[in-house]
């Protein structure tokens, strides 16, 4: 089966920045925002020089690996671990939401991340920031939070050299520093007054993305917590296929308009990693046959953080090695092609056409069966096909390629996550 494979850094934007193609200036309505692929005509992040398919796969794998390593580092090697949230998880932005910040509103692009609480934007005068900066001096509703503010205790490494609550944190291999601030943030047509975020003053290193970050995790400073009255800690997204012509999907904030006919699985609570969306993965099928996986490889363990999370920022699904090897070997047996090759971190690639089986993730209360479009990468010429999964050190991560063309609903008040097939574009 030949298919065109578009570049893999699945950055998407939920609207557009100023100065882009006017045909892309689609107005978001209510609490619904449109999603665009990063390489669509509406994206400011199109590469100036197209990469070859192999170069793009390898670059995306490298960025993905950094994120997976950090996620896995949250899993303790002993029974007692310090309490921490997912603030430092984002290694490269995966989805970008257009937010209007301040009064009068200034449009800013912010990376959305379901495994992070962090909210910050580059501000005027920021040293090392490479994107459009928020000019806080022009906003009549902006204020810097002092050291006595309750939120100051919720940011990483707070310091109080002056009156402002300052913070610094790692971001991949980089560091960022800023002041804790508040202002009105508007998503689509919904204003959220007194939103707490970091106003960046300095960044150092190569892994800081040019945009700000908007965390959709479950911690106290996340969007869900700060907009609880407005959205009731409920949202869903539908990610478009990389092969769809329009590359567009949608984000719905709040319980209104969410699917009625949808199956759910419980969200599990890990007090040591409160931001992450853990689910109970109980088995995996390749074709119709359940794969023999050691129970410890997929079991949820709140004392260590091991288990399975749903993540919007990782591109390719990772399974801990015993689970991955079992699934990979079952996949290879079903494909029945002898000449298996590798590409970067993918170890199950073929240079001849294959007939691939489906893979089903079996969760408590629901199964999610993935067709070939969610499982296989095809080179532009169709000459190489790879299983788009790899092994992880300590944590199973269901990533965004495997979520494409599904409506994924996060219903935090009822501690459940739902998945249903949906054409997103």
TrEMBL record:
Q: Which GO terms describe its molecular function?
A: aspartic-type endopeptidase activity
The record's section on Pfam families has: TAXi_C (PF14541), TAXi_N (PF14543)
Biological process terms from the Gene Ontology for this record are: proteolysis
Please tell me whether the keyword Cell membrane is annotated for this protein: no
Q: Which UniProt keywords apply?
A: Aspartyl protease, Disulfide bond, Glycoprotein, Hydrolase, Protease, Signal
Q: What is this protein called?
A: Peptidase A1 domain-containing protein
The segment(s) forming the Peptidase A1 domain are 95-420
- What's the family? Belongs to the peptidase A1 family.
Q: What lineage is on file? A: Eukaryota, Viridiplantae, Streptophyta, Embryophyta, Tracheophyta
Q: Where is the signal peptide?
A: 1-19
Superkingdom of this protein's organism? Eukaryota
Species in which this protein is naturally found: Gossypium harknessii
